[in-house]
Amino acid sequence: xASNAVSLYLDPQIRDxxxxxxxxxxxxxxxxxxxxxxxLQSPPKKLARNALREQRALVRSQVLRTTAAYSPLPPSFYSxxxxxxxxxxxxxxxxxxxxxxxxxxxxxxxxxLTDPGAMDGMMAGMKTQMVMMVPQxxxxxxxxxxxxxxxxxxxxFPLTLGFKSMxxxxxxxxxxxxxxxSSLSWxxxxxxxxxxxxxxxxxxxxxxxxxxxxxxxxxxxxxxxPAGPQDYNKLFKTEIDNLEFSNALYSWLGDDVEDRVLxxxxxxxxxxSR
Amino acid sequence: MSTAEQQAQQRIxxxxxxxxxxxxxxxxxxxxxxxxxxxxxGLEKWSGAILFVLSTLLTSACxxxxxxxxxxxxxxxxxxxxxxxxxxxxxxTFVLVWTLFYAIVHVYD
Lengths: 274, 109
Known about the structure:
Number of strands of chain B: 0
InterPro entries (chain B): Emc6 (IPR008504), EMC6-like (IPR029008)
Low-confidence stretches of chain B: 1-7
Order of helices and strands of chain A: HHHHEHEHHHHH
Main location (chain B): endoplasmic reticulum
Distance between the termini of chain B: 50 Å
Oligomer: heterodimer
Radius of gyration of chain A: 31 Å
Number of domains of chain B: 1
Number of helices of chain B: 6
Membrane topology (chain B): Multi-pass membrane protein
Keywords (chain B): Endoplasmic reticulum, Membrane, Transmembrane, Transmembrane helix
Low-confidence stretches of chain A: 1-5, 217-229
Helix content of chain A: 55-70%
Number of helices of chain A: 10
Strand content of chain A: under 5%
Helix content of chain B: over 70%
Pfam families (chain B): EMC6
Strand order of the largest sheet of chain A: 1-2
Shape of chain A: elongated
Mean pLDDT of chain B: 78
């Protein structure tokens, strides 16, 4: 059936006992990894009411600002919320420990190494990293040990000679076409190709995705820590300025709604200059 | 869908954006089936890659005309480019499935 001069005939048992099992094992290990990561994640710490209130106050003013340009709030509502927040930020009523007394030096942000809360966040990040790496190493070792020394598959596309040493490891044939490869290359193909399947089975945020390994973990560990021990007093002060800026940007969606409705029904009085 | 005529980001309704993410699934499935087709047909080297490109274009054309009604900018955030782009994941999936079916059918593995 093959038209090229050198074509190997491979035992169908190789397909049954190597090809399918490797794929099946990798799929199952990926799913297992995803669920292990979910089980290992500790639930987020519940904050005290005061701490929660100061975070939420900041979020409220941010929401108000982002919707300011096409705001659904009529002017009276917008200005009353804005003034209220400005006053509260200025006097520090929402702060966790109450308004700062004059003469108090504000505490700097807690050192992440000593603050136990932030430490937990970093440990969680490192734990997930470990869980991701270990199964890959184990499977590679398993494949190298059991499925070594024979040709598994013929790639439909050619590769350069440089790949020969990696993909034909254990097969001592200097002349064989690079397209005949050993089981390790099947492992690599699966490693990259199964991400789409994981996304289909486990949803978008799955932890079995190997393409997200390199980019996600270095930043995730650092992002968790700084959010906690921040100086809310300073943040509130900047928020006051920001609220003033968005006051200038503010415009109500319903500003000229009467004219728009009239225009739609072609009843706009001709006396208005357009 | 409630995207605005202007570029007002606030007018995008998150639930609808999420519902439109089924686009990703369609791309994945189409790359799977294209891989199977390429493998079964015994396509090698460039013919396989060309099949992948053609299948991507065909899928995008179907979505463009049937679902997006000719206006991809209204339904997909990145517009036409994001609609057509299969993404790195799906390219690897195509290669995996292509190799698998090629091996099953043609190498009698």
